[in-house]
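I'm stuck. Protein, please.
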Amino acid sequence: MSLVFRKILIITLLVFAGNSWASEKVSLQLKWQHDFRSAGYYAALWQGFYEAEELDVSIVSSVAAGGSILNPVEEIIRGRAQIAIGGIDILVERGKGKDLVILAPIFQHMANSLFSLEKTQLDSVQDLGQLRIAADSDNYAREEVEALIRAHGVEPSSIVYVSSPATIESLLDGTVDVIVANGAITLTDARERNLALNQLSPGDYGLQFYGDTLFSHGKTFDESSDMLEAFLRASIRGWEYALSHKAEMSQRISLEFPRDEYSYEELSSYNFSLSDTIEAYMDYPLTEIGHSNKIRWVNMIRLLQSIGVLKTQLDFHDLVYIPDPESIDNQLIVLLVAGMGVLSGLVLYFMPSHRNLWPLFLISVIFIVFAEQRLERNFLYEYEAKIELDMTRQLNYISSNFSGMMSQKSAIINGLVAHIVTNPELTEESFERYSRAVFSKESFLKNIAVAPDLVISMIYPLKGNEAAMGFDYERNELQSDSVRRAVESKELIITGPVQLVQGGSAFIGREAVFINEKLWGIVSATLSSEVLYRRAGLLNPDITIDVTIRGGYGLYGDATVFYGDEGIFSDPRALNTSIVVGEDNWYLAANPKQGWNYVGSNLWLLRFSAIALLVVFLLYLAFRQRELNKVAQFEMRIYQNESLLRDVGKMALIGGWRVTSDRKIVQCSEQAAILMGVKYGERETIIDEVMQGFPSKQAEVFTSAFTEAITTGAAFDIEIYRNGVQSEKYWLKFIGDTALQEDGRYEVIGAVQNISERKVLSEVIQRQATFDLLTDLPNRFLFNDRLNEVVHRAARDNTQLAVLFVDLDKFKPVNDSLGHQAGDEFLKMVAARMQSSIRVSDTLARYSGDEFTIILQDITSLASVLTIVEKVLANINKPYTLNDMQIFCSASIGIAMYPEDALEADDLVSMADHAMYEVKLSGGNGWHFFTKQMQEKSKRRHFLHNELQQAVAKKELDVFYQPIVNVKDQKIVKYEALVRWFDKDGNLMPTEEFISIAEESGLINEIDRFVLKKSSDFLIQYGKINGVQIGLTVNLSPRIFTSRDDSVELWLGLVRGICNSIDLTVEITERLLTQDTDRALDVLQKLKTCGASVAIDDFGTGYSSLSYLTKFPIDYIKIDRSFIQNLDTDPAAKMLTDTIINLAKKMQLQVIAEGVEKLSHFEYLAEKGCEYAQGYYLGRPQSEQSLLDEFAQVDQVKVLKV
């Protein structure tokens, strides 16, 4: 292979050396004689730019030595020139079937212009009608005129061509009115003669034909594209130099190349004056030299076809050369396919002899990805070309429509100007007659106006345009600029879109009217913007391009984008064109709506095919690799003596060994020797001697398995251990397989692996699964296993055991106030104290959170159980020091006995949990044995919970109403809404019982919402007595403040809607103020914002301090019934009641007394100044129907006479 590479290297060096020794000869055929029109090519030659590209360029004049004119196309076709300069002739000759390729347009504008003497008006294309025109046929000047008039809607039959030379002499002798000639030459000649000419440049009127253009032969392009690219690069550099050194180049051209066609005294001056005109033709430096606009070429082709010069359809992509280094030709595709075939052959060749095929696969992947990327680039290039062609057609269509409509508008204004010139005393009648005729043909006009002395005096139609009458152009800064330009240029000026005085947006065309060289006024026509866009095709939903239009002048005289996205103009890939609009140009740019990066399904198919090819190839190689691996395994069995380590590697083990049927170790790897305690290299050691270093029971396991293997051929897989130097255990895994020998006996081949770490890890995992990581106590799963085991043993041995369920009291405040880390430390301390309180034979486990369980085995009496329980409680109750703080804690313990309370382990835990719950209900810090009554109570609570859940869901609860009376006038001012529940038999369920269940289960939040909604709806509808709305009081459970769901938000939502219609008071319990104060304060403040009042229920029975009364937004204090009911008998009750009433008055709070059941109670409260009272004496809770009956009986609700 090195010899082949050496040969390739030598050939490559020779090729490059050959290129460096000789420059390629190139002949450039000019279109003109030697002058500044070819300055860039001379500069590239003289400055060494061609030489730097290894090109030997000769520049040939259009005039041969004998005076004959050389045709650039003929010189290319005959092969005498490789590159030439042409114009329209390139397209015409290509249309005739000649294989020509455009390289780059050097002149952005064509050189020919139309000229007339000053006395012959030549202000617009329309002026050409009926004028005698001289145009040379050999340079396609006449075809340029035909294209120009076709673009501007001038009737071709109105043009008169004469067979005279297109020279200034023909103008002077009067044989022609207009000549079509090279602009640079003609203007220079006119300056020499001191002659003023009128000039009409086709480029100023939308005929965007390219001028001098480099082209070549298709064959040259195919064979020497690198040469053509090098020539272009050097020529562009030459033109940049020439345009930067005009004087220098003019002098040298004049010296190097004498003129045969014309003679001037100052040839250098002639070339220098020519340089400015050439720079304008090239549009330099605004346009990059050699820039080729695809849409302009397509427009040129379309116009030449429309006048019959081109008879065939030309494909832009085959005609114009666009450098694309990423493109890929058919030859390269063939090379890629051939390369793939060679690669496949190499794969098939190397497969039988190489077992690792993945390097070949890697090479294949690289090759396929490379091929796919090349093909994808080619696809994208062709896709973009297709998009560009479609965009070109659409942009041509839109620009053509714009040109046509603007030409029609120009004709309308020009016609009106001509009418005014012939009829300067324009009357409203004649103006209206003329305008009506115009409007009958043109539907896109909004109005036509005339402004004598620059003040609008006539407008058609007048209706809707009254605001424009009397408009003075000179006094309006926004429009004075365009009027001034119209007056100064004497041309049609179109501006817009502008906002009209009479309303709406439109384009306005204005032209000044001069009579005997004196300004008469302004004529204007207004074209609807929307109609223009629609008729141009911009609003067509079927177009697939985004178009942006920029005018030459905006409202203030500056270029501005008036339609579309301005950013499209800065996109280098956008297509651009322009049209002539009056004296200005409009520039159009377009991008595809889907963007340039949109790809179709074909590209995804190509990518999928490449991926599919890789997958298929991978699967095939994987299959072959697996087959080869099987062969390798078979060979390793044959060559076991040479590949023992490979066998061991196949089995994923560390050491290998071989033992014969007579129990001799004939082979043993170094690792196996170390693990088994055998001296490495020692031959024919008896395996039984090795087992002497293992504990006897472990040796018996191995010996038994080994004996069965050599006897029956059975394989084995065992785990045994031997003791290390420091008595640590080394766990070893022995795997043995047998091989039948020729003598009918079995030989054992095995491997040994140190699995000590795995064993330790397994123990760690087992412990993590069964022990609590925080307290290092057994977790729930291990506890249940041990409990089941202890229960079975107790059943077998007929013994007793006890299960304790321990729940820490008020652990949550500790966790919340000190943090979770401190809470964890606290749990560890509690666990340690409990562990020290029980016997070694007992089991303590962390069941969950702050719950623990204990198994007490072999119980002989209940006294022994209580001894341990009391000890546990005593130790838990001792103070704890945590974070330099002293913390106190207690516990609730439930006790269940086996077999008295339950026979199953799960039932024992459940019974102990029930007993613990009873302790909790009693205040905690104690213990309780499980009883049958607890079980019945638990069942009842479970039953009530299910029934209550259904009642809440079906809204089967009822609301009763108890009156709250104003003590002064004994009138009912509010009703307190109280929930009641009747079972299916109509029995009233105990309120305290089912409310307790609702609090525990969270149903209380839904009940509170139900009561609020039902009671408010009822009282709002029926609770107005003599026009006075009776208020409502509802209770709010503390549970809502600790709920994690959206209960608070739902409840507040109801309150907001209710407070607008009724006086609402919300009662909260006193203990709420001592819990989550921040949360409670936030909710209560929101209640106050809604307009509700807040009352503290059962005041005086809790632990709140006076500070809470000032902190929270409280309106009412409700004295607990326990104080009111004892007013007659207990002086302390009177004192507390007096204190609460006086305190409330000083804090500007109102008092509601509950439990008023006697007249004496009511009189006492009235005497002490209590504002409101509530109780059975004043009214019992009653149903809605009962309350409706009462409302119906009285006009004003009063209490009973006392």
About this structure: The first helix runs from residue 2 to 21. The two ends are 126 Å apart (CA to CA).
